Amino acid sequence: MRSTRSLLIVYFLALLGVGLGVVVILADRVVTRALDEKERTAAEAIDLRTLERVRNEQEKFDRELLTHARLIARIARREYLPQSDAERRKFDTQLLPPSYFAGFGPTFSLWAVTWHSGLAQQPRRGGSNPNPQFLYWSLARSYLSNLRIDELYLKPIDDDDRILDYVQINGTFGSVRRSENLITAGFVLPFERSRVDKVLEDWTYDEVHLPGAATGRRVIFKTPLPIQAPGFDRFRPSQGRPAPADPSQYIYIHVARLSNELEHHVATFRSEAADEKTVLQTGTVRTVGWIRLTLAFIAVLTFLACLLGSSWLIRRGLTPLSRLSDAVSQVSEKDFRLAVERDELTTELQPIHTRITETLDQLRMAFEREKQAVADISHELRTPVASLLATIDVSLRKPRTAESYLQTLKDCRAITKQLSQLVEKVMTLAYLDAGQTKVAQVPVDVMDIATSCAAVIRPLAEAHGLQFEMKSDGPIRVQTDPDKLREVLTNLLHNAVEYNNAGGRVELDVSSDPENVRFRVKDTGIGMTDEVREKIFERFYRADSSRTATGVHAGLGLAIVKEYVDRLGGSISVESEPGAGSSFCVSLPAA
Fold this sequence. Notes:
The chain is rod-shaped. It folds into 3 domains: 4-121 and 130-232 and 247-263, no CATH class; 329-435, no CATH class; 438-589, Histidine kinase-like ATPase, C-terminal domain (Heat Shock Protein 90), CATH 3.30.565.10. It has helices at residues 4-95, 106-116, 132-144, 180-185, 193-199, 260-317, 319-329, 350-396, 402-434, 446-463, 482-498, 530-535, 557-567; strands at residues 165-170, 176-178, 203-210, 214-224, 235-236, 241-242, 250-258, 442-445, 467-472, 477-480, 505-512, 516-523, 571-576, 582-589. It has 13 helices and 14 strands. It is 56% helix and 14% strand. It catalyses: ATP + protein L-histidine = ADP + protein N-phospho-L-histidine. It holds the Pfam family HisKA. Its main location: membrane.
């Protein structure tokens, strides 16, 4: 036997389990998504910080190259200036004697010496001799290209006395100075002045190949040299055009360094970033696992707490139902009243209370009817039994003739027949109440049944001095139980005869339409009031109590008629007025 409390506990725990599962899953998804977002944000921050470190390292690397290049530039300017002053004087006095220009003729040789020393102030006339400016700068280019920087300054030395950088200096007139590591490797850093001057302002960086097929990073630093070249007059009448401006003297300092150190630092930064991401991912996984374990622990703890408390909670919730159950258990055959009021129960139990109250009222009325039925049956049996005993007692008081005994036996037989009819009606109602009466649906002609009933009742009506009349629309076939329909019509016709007035009339009218077949039994008897008409189909109810003593009318006939008509799927109604007769109409479905 299943228990409501157990079922409620199971349903509650099942619902709780589903709810906790949904909550845990949703919480897990929300937390996991939040942690993933946090991890992604942190990973992006790590990437940005790594990029910043790489950029800072590159800038530091580039600053070191630029610092080295500027150092060499300062050294170059310091070394070039004294050499240019001294060598210019040597160039003026030694490298350009008049005999140097002997090939150009005595006149030009003399002019070259006097012009260069500042003695010649007038322009030269006549002759097609070479341009002394071009000649001078050709010789100066050869001279300046031989200016030297101490080899010590070409050695890039760090704090640990380790040569790190590759140094190369490109002069204005094509001179190239290289550090020892480049000379040893026989390597010259590529340099195109025209291309560099287009993009170069002071310095620029690029990637360059270094000895050993290595790749490095280079800075090219452009710096001017303060070289004092020989001056020229602003205007040369002999040439008819102004003298050119002094060409700017620049040197281009290359400082290159292998990128492996930078790449090592960058790789270290990225490795550290990868390690941080790994730690971050591990922490996220650990946090997610811990949160899941916590959620599972909370869910299990909640489930166990509800499991322990559900019995008490459901018992409390079922208290109104227990009160109603106790009130129903207190109902007895002597008291059909519930001991609990409807308003004392919960909203859900109030309809149940109403239904139970209605059922108990019906049960009480049924008990009352049974009691009344027992009383009525006892009363109905008492009269014929008393009559039978009286007849027998009278017959036994003294000897009788054969004719007297024969009459006594006839009277006893008549009384016994009445008892048999009464018992048969009571048994019929008992079978109907028990549901043991079966209804046979067969096709029949209702006119045949009506005609047979009329043939039985007609002699009884004539014996009572009544007129009997039957009307019909012709043959009518329906699906019904012929025996029960015959019992209904016979009972109604018999009552019409018994409750009629002398000289009255009884009518049987059979009619039909597409949906129903109607049987109307009409009499001109005593009729009935509205109160009687409402109770006419109740068991053991008799409108005319004066007929009770006969033992024939026990008040069961119309009750049996009503039960039969209901089981045939039809309906019965009555119209009557006191003193104007009654009309009973039975309607059965035509299909």
